Amino acid sequence: MGVDGLKKSYDSITKKVHLSKFRGGKLVVDASGLLYKYLPLCDVEEIARSQNEGSPLTYNQVEPCISAVISAVLQVTKGLDMEVILVADGDRSNKVTANSSRSSSRQDAFNKAEAEQDEQKARKLFQQAVSIGKEFVRGLIYACEDKAGVTAVQSPYEADAQLSKLSEVYDSEKCVVVSNDGDLPVQGVRNVLFDLGLKKSDTANFQCAKLLCVDDVFNHDKSPYKDLTQIMFCCICVLAGCDYCGGINGVGLAKATALVKAVSDDNVGRFSLDLLCTHISEKTTFVLPEDFRADAQRALYTYRHQVVIDPDDFKLKHLTPPSTGADVSFLGSCEGNESTVREIYDGIRDANTREEWEDSSRDFFPPPDENLEHHVKAIAAARKEGMALVDSREKIAQLVAEVKQIRDTKKAEIEALRLINPNHPDVIAFDWRWTEFDKMIGIFREGRETDEPLDKDMIDAWVLANMKRYPGAAINICKVTII
After folding, report:
1. Checking phi first, is residue 431 left (phi over 0); if not, alpha (psi -120 to 50) or beta?
2. Which end of the chain has less Cβ packing within 10 Å, N or C?
3. Residues of the domain holding 436
4. pLDDT tens digits for 361-384?
């Protein structure tokens, strides 16, 4: 949701750049936006119904869009020697205003989809009813394990704040954040790329984007926020209505900017939220909602002091240190040992509970037959959406050899773990994956030896369902590739 019109307000201070400007650096990506972008590749009706019933999702249900996300970011950075970091949301409970609104909108979309007779319209409504929840996060992190060039991490709370932390930690000259969320400069993200061209067929825009430098927000002559401070910028968003506060009725982005500038001019060097609220109450006709001052203060604290993970020492910290006496306890605790924090960041633990995932690996990864059936459907859906599938038998054979080598490397580690805990989720998952891999190879080899034509969808489905999950091989496997 964010602040209505905020991203568009940057148009006069953004510039079109090619991704090669950041060659050799880090591409930090807001994963949620891309997961929503490629969500149509999934069976959105099935997912929406599961979520509406409160049933947990499986990896198969979320895997098509996850694979497309990974494929897209690796394709757009190809040849640029860039490290991709996909940042996923953790606990989003601080977005009280946004969560309530979005939940209501999703339920409304689901109800409309149930009543819609037109299949295409119903599918779009079911898509709107889907929430990118923890199963998507878990699946994304799992799919990126040991993959060269791309890593997925989980924020302890919101991805926006974690994106800002990473842009601070890494060299700003060689680190850029990819998102379409206009709120990121409010969080302090240094360099943001909007509208990154991900389709190779769109030659004019592929690897190109609109670059916004946060310094330009406050210093560029054409910026509507010139000469303001970060606190003032946050106040503008709060007045106009943001994810953390509903704003003031009748106040949009332009009016909020004018109000903040008026208070700034009248109170040089001592601007505050309290002065702003007093000005609105006494000198304008706008009516402050009940408890607005308290809600607005919480929103400012949330923008500036969210809890993030510092990747340098794996400690939980506030994005910026709160002032003495500021009550920011509602933002969550900064307590946690390095091991626990690292496991949250790596996606081993659920950020909401800080415990290991409740469901077992066997529940998350369904039985083989269901797995295959699901991916046959995914193939058809991908083709319907205009995607292409690689089906070179020689390429598959080459990749089979590569994956077997990966298995042999991983096996020693798993066998050591098996001696300690034979029921460890990694052991269960390893056994299941490689059993299915061998089964897939058997089907492939049988078709080659008899020289009988194999059903293309069946072979591609087995490849998608099994091979692409294995560490180090996922993106090279015969898979959905953006045209």
Report:
1. alpha
2. C
3. 389-481
4. 556 655 544 544 555 555 555 555
